[in-house]
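Notes to self after the Tuesday call (sharing in case useful).
The group wants a holo model before anyone commits to mutagenesis around the pocket. I volunteered. Ligand is flavin-adenine dinucleotide. Logging inputs and output together so the record is complete.
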Amino acid sequence: MSHTLSRRVLLGGAAAGLAAPAIAQQKAAARLVIVGGGFGGATAARYARIHHPEMEVTLIEPKTRFITCPYGNLILDGKRQLGQISFNYDGLRKRGVKVAQASATGIDAAAKRVRLDKGAAVAYDRLIVSPGIAIRWGALEGYTEALSATIPHAWIPNDGTQIMTLRRQLEAMENGGVVGFALPENPFRCPPGPYERISLVASYLKKHKPRSKILALDAKETFSKQGLFQDGWKALYGDMIEWVPGNKDGRVARVEADRTLVTEFGTRHKVAVANVIPPQYAAAIARESGLVDKSGWVPVDPRSFEAKAAPGVYVVGDATNGAPLPKSGFVASNTAKHAVACAVASLKGEAPPAGLYFNTCYSHVGDDYGISVVGVYRPSETAFVEVPNSGGVSPRGDLPEQRKLESGYADGWYASIAKDMFS
Ligand SMILES: Cc1cc2nc3c(=O)[nH]c(=O)nc-3n(C[C@H](O)[C@H](O)[C@H](O)COP(=O)(O)OP(=O)(O)OC[C@H]3O[C@@H](n4cnc5c(N)ncnc54)[C@H](O)[C@@H]3O)c2cc1C
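Result:
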């Protein structure tokens, strides 16, 4: 058989048996449709075109410009501007990806169709969905979408307004003010992300408003790379940062419009600038198409990322219920490549190829100060399993050269993953 992946081959025996349109079918390319042009979706589109140029690849994404969450925190201490973390889809178009600038409003897995907000529908042979997260409005009392205009979450970039609001509020704050954070329970997008943000806010304050303080109220008792972050905070910022765990009255139960964060035991913290990172779940398209379970996240087959609720639909990225895989851009990206391979294998009637998944996540703690975590995971039939002794975190101790190197590695990681998505 030729390597050409025609729809006739891909649709298997049943389609091949239809005599009349057989020739037409032989020539029709297999249709891979992808919902969401972020870390998972853009990578899937790019790799599908690189490895299977005979396939028709359509990417459905409403935005013309994708702003990355990674490196968004660096805007807060002025190391990056919005334009440096924004990308368009021209590179993917040049590779032959058809970009449909629209929102998917429903998935009909039985009919193999995705409905779009503009009224049309797109038919697929296999579908990859990587729509990211949504904020669980209503889960944290008082924190509404309207209030997020003045008390930003800055956890979904959209057009960049949220992170720029936070930046401007820091600029407007008086020297000596308190910046308050409300941090969520697991699972949420980017486990080390809030602590990198605290670090970079501290970096900004140290340079511009050194009498200020940070109060980080956390629903959890522990967090990602905790020892490394706390070592860095002490070394770089002295006693500027107070982190309060959930069991010491750190759990914020209500947010009030005047920037008062109220804990579960009723302690009231009125702060000058507040950043609330609220509870999250899978983006609307995953929830409204019946892909999620009661956790609000999408359960998938760990070997292929095929959604448990929808054969032929592969879900990757933050929307999945993939613990212990962290919700990171790096995981979304490499599991998206695997999902493409699995979708193609399934079109050929083959079993999914063996999976091995990776996470590498760098965090900036301050100038020339980077730390990282690495994890390697294998699928069993029913779960994602961390490969014993495979990963780890940066060494602790007074290691300025190591921190400087990792800060440079982080920049290299960002430049290369951005290319791997959009070029
Ligand atoms: C502050 C911060 C820092 C971070 N730093 C890092 C880091 O250093 N390293 C790292 O690996 N990860 C990092 N992350 C995590 C990373 O951003 C996410 O894990 C990653 O974006 C997940 O990819 P995704 O494809 O699931 O979702 P996204 O990248 O969010 O992409 C989802 C896309 O789907 C689109 N979409 C949604 N609904 C629809 C629909 N109905 N129809 C069509 N399109 C739709 C959206 O517009 C969006 O473009 C960070 C996150 C934050 C918040």
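Two things stood out.
Residues 35-41, 60-63, 66, 69-70, 72-73, 103-104, 130-132, 155, 189-190, 193, 197, 283, 285, 317-319, 327-330, 332, 361-362 surround flavin-adenine dinucleotide (CB under 6 Å).
The chain has a mean pLDDT of 94.
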